[in-house]
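Record 1 of the preview.
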Amino acid sequence: MQIIHIGAWVALGVFAATAATDAIYVLFTAAVAARRRVPAATWSGIWYLLSSFAVINYTRHRYYVIFAAAGSWVGAYVSISFMKRPVGETRR
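->
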């Protein structure tokens, strides 16, 4: 039986990086939808920088994918929660 070693700091880093990556992705998508070129390009660059940390770590150790998925969910949820809604749109 193989012993699984998961570094707490690396797991936290992967979680935080993917949470930030998904939050940035939401902002990138909003900028693209609004046809705002400079913000979309800026968010895109930041998105790739953040995602590289998580990808490098979870490709070396497959169990970090769990932390990446959790961070991704949290990042998308939080970023959508804080985005301004168009007038008249209700929350679901």
